[in-house]
Structure formats: structure tokens, C-alpha cells
Amino acid sequence: MIDKKHIGLKSAPHRVEVEKGRLRFFAKAIGETNPIYTDEEAAKAAGYASLPAPPTFVFCLEMEQPNPFEDLETMGIDLGKLLHAEQSFRYHAPICAGDCLTFEKQVSDIYDKKGGALEFVVQDSRVKNQTGELVAELRRVIVVRNKT
User: Fold this and answer.
1) How far apart are the two ends of the chain, measured CA to CA in Å?
2) Domain boundaries, the chain
3) What topology is assigned to 4-17+53-145 in CATH?
4) Which of helix, strand or coil describes residue 34?
5) Contact 64, 36 (CB under 8 A)
6) pTM of this prediction?
7) Tens of pLDDT, residue by residue, the chain (148 residues)
């Protein structure tokens, strides 16, 4: 069983720069055809400072920390039994190319179902830009399968 003492566990903050090339590549990969995601002039005409990040791109940036699974390893979770159960995003401001984002992740809940056969870890991340403005909040729920 995952020890509930880990509720409140924080990962070390990490910073990531939002790059134009990666935004264009991601937009293409998800089939996004709106030119604001690939053409900087179209983005500026739409009121953005530069190319905006397509929906869900911020999750890719969150995974760029040196060891994205360090907190799970600290909790003693066997990564081979891990499933990604849920992901949600709340945006507060646009994220654009050139922004430097700081991610702060914390375990907000740990609970089990089916008599402990499934354990759930809820992680919340706050994302701030280079001016300290909160631009996004992410919630991830992972499930650990303890019995087959």
C-alpha cells in the first residue's frame, strides 16, 4: 500500500522554455490546422504575443523534468504496475512561444479501491510564466494495479 504520508509530497520545481519549433511540431502531430499554431503572423493577428501552445501541450513540458517519475519512485511505486488514469487542464492565461514556465507538482490525494487492488495517486501541478503569473493548473491521476 502506498503510504498516505506522501500526501503533500512536492517535486522540485523545474523550468522549461516554450519553443516555436516544438509548438509547430505538436500542432502538426495532433492534426491542428488553425494557422495561429503554426504561423506567427496569424497568431499575432489573433492577439497572441507569439505562437500559442495547442491544448494539452503543457503536459509534454511537465514531463521534461530531469526525472519525471522521481516522486513515484520516492513513494515506492513499481512503474511497471502504473497506469495513467486521468488528466485535466485548467488554463488561466495563454502560453506562447518564448515563455519560460515553472512547474510545481504536489501529491494531493492517495486512495484505494477494490480492497487495495487499485491504488490512486492524485498529483496537482501549478504552472507559472516568467512574470510569476499562474497560467495553468494540471491534475493527473495515476492508478497502481496491485493484483492481477
Assistant:
1) 15
2) 4-17+53-145
3) Thiol Ester Dehydrase; Chain A (3.10.129)
4) coil
5) no
6) 0.90
7) 899 999 999 999 999 999 999 999 999 999 999 999 999 999 999 999 999 999 899 999 998 888 888 899 999 999 999 999 999 999 999 999 999 999 999 999 999 999 989 999 999 999 999 999 999 999 999 999 997 5
